[in-house]
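Posting for a labmate who doesn't have an account.
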Amino acid sequence: MSTTSNLVEVEQLKLYFPIRSGIVLDRHVGDIKAVDDVSFEIRHGETLGLVGESGCGKSTLGRALLRLYEPTSGKIVFDGQDISKLGAEGMRNLRRRMQIVFQDPFASLNPRHSVSRIIGEPLRAHRLASRRATARRAAELLEIVGLPRDAASRYPHEFSGGQRQRIGVARALALNPDFIVLDEPVSALDVSIQAQIINLLEELQKEFSLTYLFIAHDLAVVRHISDRIAVMYLGSIVEISPAAELYANPLHPYTISLLSAVPIPDPEVERARKPILLAGDIPSPANPPPACRFHTRCPFVQPTRCREDVPPLRELEPGHLVTCHWAEQIKAGEIKPHEVEAVFVEAESVRGWEPPPV
């Protein structure tokens, strides 16, 4: 067992997908930089929220931690053991301690299998229980996630989306794991059901001492379940902070922009505030902007340094890390966000766009 407080440690992780061309796709012409030089840690028993726009690499990063995707370079340490180059047999044994809950409960369950078989599949794959013991375990897990035991004989199409996601959670718990990657587990569910699933996950975490990586694109969702939050943009981590601190004191322009767009359940406050708009679309991960990757859309962009120097991930306050050259000046109010029209002029890589009509 590890003697540190961290269950997962990631160092300079990169995961590139090759772009191939030619009649037989035999020429390597570039790479999709899905995860690019990412470093962070997840402590025993905590929930690290991972947020960002669709396509920024969140799910790819989560699957890379489980070695479902093979990293291009970097190091992944799980409970003190470097698993980056671990062989197939070593990973097979280790996967009993790390599981995943997928985003879409309609696609992640085999429609031809009964619920009992779906939940018991990990036990059969690792040859840990007899058929009778597997059926008992499946029934126990159904009760743990809030479903009746007799659901074991039914099939996925007989359940609602929220119930299917509970089945997915039960399957992830079958091997008594230490670490679970929750890959947008509530994004496909109604808002009322989202709260039920999040409450269930919190209860299970306390009962079984679980560690979570909770992936989402909605900052409002991760706020209530996360101990710390990492914000991802175009394959890189741009800010990491305790959850309460991130919402009270965001330091990176991207985080500030995201939070400015989160609805506030107070009509007067909502009417009075002005969201910070971002210019254009997210750039291609096959050809990310040089230096600061966010400078082509940043409402606080400055003329030279943002385009010339790569900002390191640095600690500005205890436990609060950020990649921005001007974070102190932005926090102090010395640098103000540009008008939307100016942002479109500054974003030289965004082509074919015009300022929004006034």
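Reply:
Got it, the structure tokens are right above this. The first helix runs from residue 58 to 65.
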